[in-house]
Amino acid sequence: MSIQFCSENSLFTxxxxxxxxxxxxxxxxxxxxxxxxxxxAEGDDLSRLFFPLDRSFSGxxxxxxxxxxxxxxxQPMEYSMFGCSDYRSSCLIPVNPDGTREADLRYVxxxxxxxxxxxxxxxxxxxxxxxxxxxxxxxxxxxxxxxVTLVYTVFESRDAITRYAVIENGTSxxxxxxxxxxxxxxxxxxxxxxxxxxxxxxxxxxxxxxPVRHGKIVSDSLRxxxxxQQNPFMILCDHDATETAGExxxxxxxxxxxxIAECEYDQLWQTRLTMGIHPHAFRWVxxxxxxxxxxxxxxxxxxxxxxxxxxxxxxxxxxxxxxxEYKTARRPILINNWEATYFGFDDDKLVKIAEDASKLxxxxxxxxxxxxxxxxDDTTGLGDWFVNTNKLHGGLDSLCRRVxxxxxxxxxxxxxxxxxxxxxxxxxHPEWCLRGPGRAxxxxxxxxxxxxxxxxxxxxxxETISAVLSSANLEYVKWDMNRHISNIYSGALPAERQGEVYxxxxxxxxxxxxxxxSAFPHVLFEGCSGGGGRFDAGMxxxxxxxxxxxxxxxxxxxxxxxxxxFGYPISAVGSHVSAVPNHQTGRSTPMATRGIVAMSGTFxxxxxxxxxxxxxxxIIRQQVEDCKRVYELISDGxxxxxxxxxxNHNYTAWQFTAPDQSxxxxxxxxxxxxxxxxxFVIRLRGLDPEARYEVKPNSLNAVVRxxxxxxYSGASLMKAGLLIPLMKGDYAAAQYEINRV
Length: 741
Description:
Blueprint: E1 3-6, E2 11-15, E3 19-25, E4 31-38, E5 92-95, E6 106-114, E7 132-140, E8 147-155, E9 160-168, E10 175-187, E11 192-200, E12 203-211, E13 215-221, E14 233-238, E15 248-254, E16 259-265, E17 271-277, E18 284-286, E19 291-293, E20 296-302, H1 305-320, E21 334-336, H2 338-341, H3 347-359, E22 364-367, H4 395-404, E23 409-414, E24 418-419, H5 424-428, E25 448-449, H6 455-470, E26 474-479, H7 501-519, E27 524-527, H8 537-540, E28 545-547, H9 554-564, E29 573-578, H10 591-598, E30 602-606, H11 614-636, E31 638-641, E32 651-657, E33 663-670, E34 680-682, E35 692-697, E36 710-713, H12 714-719, E37 722-724, E38 733-740
Parallel strand pairs: 21-22, 21-30, 22-23, 23-26, 26-27, 27-28, 28-29, 29-30
Antiparallel strand pairs: 1-2, 2-3, 3-4, 5-10, 6-7, 7-8, 8-9, 9-19, 9-20, 10-17, 10-18, 11-12, 11-14, 13-16, 14-15, 15-20, 16-17, 24-25, 31-32, 32-33, 33-38, 34-37, 35-36, 35-38
Helix pairs in contact: 6-7, 9-10, 10-11
């Protein structure tokens, strides 16, 4: 069993294949955290790590009398609570019926069951059958009656533990939750760094590593979405942790709205991580007997560095979070018309793009923004989800048949959560916007936000989007969200429940996505929010791929995709080859380089293929063939970051290795060319040291160095490395296929 309870010392032990998590019921019924790290031996009891301590200005439970040796202010707590003398970051702040803000939670009972838990109405890591075991620990305040059930699911083979909390109002009246986080993780010793992922539109998930210091380091979003600016993923690691060595702990919130992740270093040099829904502008009302469920957090530990931590997240999310027919199937190679035409297209222009694309092996044409309502620019039409027959003269079904006749699939773009003032929907239902009474509202990208907490809004969207998807053989949907939320007020809720709107909005989005993906199981849904503004684990539950960034510049994408890889699988990363000069940066990069970078994701094109030369089309044909040949290796292989683009400005290198170590793919981009350059050697990873491998560049490499080709041992490639040829010119790249012989 992966979950064990020893009644003799009230000890809970959770084992995965390589890790152990341990906690116990301590003095006065408080749940004390003991350990999370490398796997321990069966029967190991770390109760010795519990330390009674008299610390001034740290209060003691009333039952302790004059014994000052126990205080929850200095103990590692399994779920921190406000108001009972733990002055560190808290997970729970209730307003009880009598107005007090206390939650004195004590152990009541527990259950252990087979299978994975599923938080109501929320995305979660699921069990494919026999993979998981779940522990539920019930805590309650003996005075107020407020109860919290902590839910832990252990995925033994994935080396992952998920957790969330269910808060139940067992009091005599109404409770209002001012703060309800999902997880708390305490460390009683050690000096660490914390890694967070910041950014902005077109520059998402940049890696920031900071030594933990006294006080708090906070990563959060109050934008109504997980955001470009911060990501709901945090890593704690040893100061000297690298890609290949050192202890690392990851916490990933499976949620797409406002969040907070805090790292606090306290008076006793103890470190606390907390994560969950942001408490700012949050206030959830619980009537008697009602429950509130927090989003799930996925925790993973690695004692072998940051690279192994990432690979464990990749396997977990690829296999136990993403769903649907495209969960593990090869995604179609697509071409999106946005950067080719923007709003200026009609059905004939789209078919012309499809005609050229089909000859090169491209499999899916995506019709982006501008096909609906009176949409001629970004000021009109959002919400009017009916076909603009001035553009699609024969209608959607006619276009689809023409594209299908070329052997290609057709996809379509939606922005369901938004509304334009100049739209039939707005004229009919202005009250459907998020906007306070008497307020004009804040525009962003010329649009307002629909109130997704409303059932009538979701019903309208489901009916209109379903009608479009049912009208033709559409096989792909790009779901976009091109602004963040302000004017957070719902006309469907009373004043005392306006603090629920942010969370109800996200629950509404999840509800609509669940209905649509269930109704159209053969459609591949891709998430998007101005690129990577909602690239989070919550969205992956509904959309197995997410447009990584609106920045399609291959050199910029090196750092964006590098940061994304820390917590999310490569199979989820939407990445395309775009035109040069690049529309965002003006930079020109070789077609081969753009292809190699985009191939480390869900491969496709974002350009006007009709304007390309015969030579460029030949390169595309070869890229498409290469991608199809190595797709499984990229999608399902183990990913290795071989350089850090934030630290190494000369080149960026990364590698995919098959789980059975039979083959690998090495990718190198020369970012900066210098006069009299120094050759660089790259050490590969993840190979069988005893096996021999043939190394050969793929057909797109313009420069081949004979010394780099040949047959070598895995040990030689990992210990001595591979000499990479000096490639003249800006932004040259090379891709090597490595096969066991």
